[in-house]
Amino acid sequence: MWPAFPPTCAALVVILSLFSSAAASLDYCCLALSIALGPNKVFYDNNSEYQRSAVTYFAQQEGELTPSCYVKPASSQDVSSAIKTLRLLNLIDDACPFAVRGGGHHTVVGIANIDSGITIDLGNMNKTTLSSDNSLAYVGAGARWGSVYSTLATVGKGALGGRIADIGAGGFLTGGGISYFGAAYGFGCDMVANFEVVLSNGNIVNANPTRNPDLFAALKGGGNNLGIVTRFDIKTFPLAQYWGGNNFYLGNQSPALLEAFNAFTINPNFDNRSGIIITTIYTSKAGYITTVNFAYTEPVANPPVFSNFTNATIIPQILSDTRISTLPEFAVTLGVNSPDNLRQTSITATVKANEHLLQQIYLLWNATVPSVNSAQNLVYSLTFQPLPVSMLNTGPSTGGNMLGLDSSNGPLVVLTLTAQYTSSSSDAVITATTRALFAAIRDLAAQSNNLISWVYLNYADKEQDVINSYGVQNVAKLRAVARKFDPTGFFQKIQPGGYKLW
User: pTM for the complete prediction?
Assistant: First the structure.
């Protein structure tokens, strides 16, 4: 006879006995999760909820993976039950590997989905509520930034999150988080006051400067290595309407724009209310174009800090949509040209702000366009983002993070190449071309002592060594925290996707 287990546990024991007497099947894993969480939270490929998850990844390649089922928890307790179930099932031969999806906006295949496994989709855990004084936003791990911003805007607040409405909170914050407002507030992870986390044993804990402070720091850049974050308690800041939007220029203006960008970035009197991104773009339909995306956290049109970009007598524009508006509106508008379910790839590097280097990098990028321009509906872009010294200095004062950046080398520039297209036959050439380009960029920057080892997780290519780019000391800290909170290596072995510690 079976021991006197509770009904759910008894069912799992039966399933485990099937594993021991027959080949392990992922169908049993999904069945066990359905028993543990309820059948209305586990979905197979014949269900519209399964299909809805598959077609709403940012990168089509990620959505093409076929998990045996999607699990869609509604609460932290559901996530805990799922992890306890998976832990028990994986006592037999690591039989039930899994992935976790927040917003699903990363381009690395397998980071938020899985073939022959279980995908836990946190999308139903998407609510944002506020503390009584509106100083904190309690954000579900499946929330998208557009909904977070809309909630905050009703009380005149903002948060340090993604620039595009559809980006998820979870990956953004555990990967570091670069935002419009970094000069004033640091990285997104630096504005997290508390993480609610499900550990590998299924326990739900809080991590903050006073409770589990080592886990708190490790989650800021540690990705998916330490647990499943189910809620982020984020510090808010006052934000009403402000000036922002885009200027559009002919592609041949890129050298002049990069000169202005470098002067803006290295300004010793950097205005912490300002943010800027320059993107050089080649499109199949329009050829070469360059955009400058602005944000200035005051309702001041064309603030003087941007005069080198906005004065048409200096660099003529072909179009501008700059305006005074709200963070939710800017986030929605910017996302119009970044739809889900197209083929996507990205790769990144970090360098010191140096105009000659940036100009050379632009020329290297430009030279690769003929190698990829046969891809259908191609949008091939190289983005330059400043990391001012004030942004790099924030981490130590907010409980620390794992990024390993040193303000003594600042200001810095994050480079990101993205390719958006529709022809799967172009995957190989685009991947090879972008990797070769960034190898050349790193070599060039290293020759002039301007290369920074840090690799930003949220923009990284699958082959980039994100964790080791944090530095030897931070890798040691991450591994120590992992041994403490996940002593069996559950998240290292059973959740294979992402950038691992070992």
Answer: 0.95
